[in-house]
Amino acid sequence: MMKLAALQMQAVAGDVAANLARIERAAREAAKGGADLLVTPELAVTGYGAGEATKALAEPADGDLAARLSALSAETGIAMVVGFAERAGETIYNSALYVDGSAAPVVYRKSHLYGAYERGLFLAEKPAACVVNHRGAKIGLLICYDVEFPENVRRLAQAGVDAVIVPTALPASDHDEFIARKLIPVRAFENQIFVAYVNHCGADALFSYAGLSGIAAPDGTLLAEAGRGEEALLLAEVRPADYAASAATNSYLADLRV
């Protein structure tokens, strides 16, 4: 069993100190609530809409940011998946960092970049199953647009994950509710896994965000959900055994033919 905390936050674009302070407060609050994993939105450290400043603010996966988050994890007892801009030499990736105290951090790089804005800032990584062993559970990492391609989620499900963790930056649009409230539960249902979809809220100079973060269960129900305009810290228990009947009835993975 895992207790998951999802931070829907209004990041300050370009203000790393403010965003890290917000993540730290959430980590302490989530730990007090009994959570063992906190998830932030996509690019939570820099803010999604930091524009060209993102390149200057990018950090290596084994740098000061990872050390600071690992220390916070060790202090609070909660592991974290945090969206950040990763620098690898001259290349910048849209990445998510998993930290759990003194354990070696794990980094996932987004494989499906969305639109000219992201393609102008980042390099896309080749799609691959990033699986983390989290305190007896197996979690898979994706970022935002990645989850809208069913192949990416299926790859992780076939690797045996219990949950897929998705930091996101879903903009407000005429189809945002469809993605957050229909597509995400379908991804959970068709793979019989949990899916945590964790978004920004509010706006910066470049984008307005939909909010609508949610944690979907294998039967397609939402265990926790946030509204549109306000920050929220969602908590949900991930108990795969509770959905054994759903997995037995909806045996997509076992019945798949390709």
From TrEMBL:
Start and end residues of each CN hydrolase domain: 2-240
Domain of life: Bacteria
InterPro entries tied to this protein: Aliph_Amidase/BUP, C-N_Hydrolase, C-N_Hydrolase_sf, RamA-like, UPF0012_CS
Example GO molecular function: N-carbamoylputrescine amidase activity
Record Pfam families: CN_hydrolase
Keyword presence, Cytoplasm: no
Record keywords: Hydrolase
Single biological process term from Gene Ontology: putrescine biosynthetic process from arginine
Family: Belongs to the carbon-nitrogen hydrolase superfamily. NIT1/NIT2 family.
Protein name per UniProt: Carbon-nitrogen hydrolase family protein
Organism: Mesorhizobium zhangyense
